[in-house]
Amino acid sequence: MLDSPPSPLAPGDVVLDRYRAVEHIASGGHSVVFLGRDERLARPVCIKAFTRYPGDPGISQTSYEHFVQEAFALSRLTHPNTLRIYDFGHLVGDPAHDDDRIPFHVSEYMNGGTLAQLVRERGAQPASEVVRITVAVADALAEAHSLGIIHRDLKPQNILFAALGGTRLPKLADFGIAKWLEDGDGAGRAAVGGRAGDTQVVSGQKMAMYSPSWAAPEQLAGQGVGPPADIYSLALMAIYMLTGRAVFADDDVYEGYRRRKTAASFVRAALDPLDLPAAVVALLVDATAFEPADRPQEAGAFGVALAEALADDEPVTATAGPHRLATAPVATLAPEPASPPAPAPAVVERIEPPARAASRGARRVTVAPGVIEVAGRAARFAPLERGHVDVSGLGGRARLRVTFLPAVAGRRQLHVKGLSTFVAPQGGRPSVAVQLDDDAVLELVDPASAAVGRVRFALGQPAAGHTVFRVGDEQVAIGSEECPDVVLVDFGPGAEAAFVYTPGVRPAAPGARKRRHP
To answer: Catalytic positions, please?
Structure first.
């Protein structure tokens, strides 16, 4: 075993006249990591510096290029679930050689540990946490893939957490062996050092660019990789979170490659004790298919599919095959009726919610079939079935699937998928679906990138046994007993609105027995 080279940094060193190394926290591969402090902004940071091991110069040079590439890759990625880079620079190595420069980069410091630590300490994770982490990482990967960047080293140790109160915010980290494809968005790639050379090094040998327990079979075989390789590793991590154990927990590359040829049997055996919906098992079997072409091809769509499958509490039979995860949304529902049905009578009365929710009376509306008029909108009540419901608006041009996910730290979580449009937070990147935990306005974009319209999601304010919503210039109150969990979907003035709700108990006449909604 080679002795570790001397660290290019020591506690107390200051780089770029602002970042002070405080404490050595990790070493591995060709880098050393320090907890640091940004003395200008008084915040903790992470300082990662390259270390050059003696040995094969070709391997050393390729490792150097990949370290530099990591900084350029992180600078291109802006997704909130990707580790943020703050700065980049070089240290002078051997003073006798000015060109012997040691690269380093400064990134945000993650104080919540890793996914590997979480599972090791707490075991298998609940489905809601598996969905939350998997969707976050899938969306981060989707941005990287859109720029032609393949991570190639997805594993629980590379999912870091920022501790925010009782919630862990997951971040995808360590792009140190990422592959930057030729057919991605080339902006910024021509910069010096921005893209590592080929992993082919001296005498036709290749460097092993993977972690054996988590790599796709094509990586173990030294073949080319694309987005399906990352999706394979992400699926293995989802199974790891659900079961608390790795599917392929060995370092023998040849044995691991052989087992991956029959991965379906290993995946089914791991998941069988959990009694999961069949759609979940089928999806994870597809995602760990031996051939890349047989897997889901788009990371964001894979995350959406897993969220929907785990949200469905009724097991169903799923048809195997990657065609289930088309990149573009597909509208397959029946067309809207030519004209809306006549409004059904709704029970309306005045209540006075507390001042925090309203400064004047709010109109109370109870659940009724048909359409009611609310602030110039044709509003409907849309009950959830198996955790989700489809909502249409803008004359049928916009169709969305709304799924209620388990609350995190007391906050309602919504999954919104476009069935006829892409969806995007205001100013954000359009995608197949988004996850919300607060009021938000989403922009709706068609496959040709043309704007379709906007939709507002509101979680409402609690008030005296009701949930109060502001709709235009009107306030509407809905009883918590009748609708214990309700969200407003508002397509705007002159368009449609929907109160998506979990059915509760219908109000009953005095002396009558209460009954639940069917």
So the answer is: 153
